[in-house]
Recover the amino acids of this structure.
């Protein structure tokens, strides 16, 4: 199985400051169709997860532009340019390239 | 509006069985691969199973293979997960969603249904 490794696992951030989460996969996530199926999900406290970013860098509808995704191959990053209070929660990277599809362990973002 | 409503969770003893259901609306259910994802209390997410629209293909994570069966009824816009030989480690909130969520398609999650395996 493809192992998704996130760091850090805990991320205290000051409001208005940037935040960055790293995700590394144990294998390349480039699929046979040329796409890289690397997604980022956000789970706010008490809520179901929702996707923020798909195929590495594409923001979902309604996702603020302070969220951005980047990377290639096996190394990926989610950045929040200026953290707001509503960004508190757990963030998961997830690969949909190799079955079984797998998630990272999650990074808990909290406000300092 | 897309809606996914899971039901069927509850308390079951180890070794027991449970059948989860997911009622889908707001999209052409019969055209999409569907999935189950679970989350143990206070833990991360695990993608459990996928099923093709015509049910000709099904995929399972190793931890449930041989015990869980994913199925669907396109006429009823419903997805199911039959869970047998349940173990304590199957305790989780189970979510149904469109599999395309993992590949750039639309992303909708239900509220989930809690399965607790305990004596």
């Amino acid at each position: 199985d493809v192992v998704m490794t996130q760091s850090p696992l805990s991320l205290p951030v000051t409001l208005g400051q940037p935040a960055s989460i790293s995700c590394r996969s144990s294998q390349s996530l480039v699929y046979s169709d040329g796409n890289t199926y690397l997604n980022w999900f956000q789970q706010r406290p008490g809520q179901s997860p929702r996707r923020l970013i798909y195929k590495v860098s594409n923001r979902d509808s309604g996702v603020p532009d302070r969220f951005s995704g980047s990377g290639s191959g096996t190394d990926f990053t989610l950045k929040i340019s200026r953290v707001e209070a509503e960004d508190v929660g757990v963030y998961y990277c997830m690969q949909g390239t190799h079955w079984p599809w797998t998630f990272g362990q999650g990074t808990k973002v909290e406000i300092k | 509006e897309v809606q996914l409503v899971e039901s069927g969770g509850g308390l079951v003893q180890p070794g027991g069985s449970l059948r989860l259901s997911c009622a889908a609306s707001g999209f052409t259910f019969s055209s999409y691969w569907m999935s189950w994802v679970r989350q143990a209390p206070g833990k991360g997410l695990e993608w459990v199973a996928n099923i093709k629209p015509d049910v000709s293909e099904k995929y399972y994570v190793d931890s449930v293979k041989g015990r869980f069966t994913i199925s669907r009824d396109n006429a009823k816009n419903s997805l199911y997960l039959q869970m047998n030989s349940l173990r304590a480690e199957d305790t989780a909130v189970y979510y149904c969603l469109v599999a395309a969520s993992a590949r750039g398609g639309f992303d909708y999650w239900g509220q989930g249904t809690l399965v607790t395996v305990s004596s």
Summary: The two ends of chain B are 40 Å apart (CA to CA). The mean pLDDT of chain B is 97.
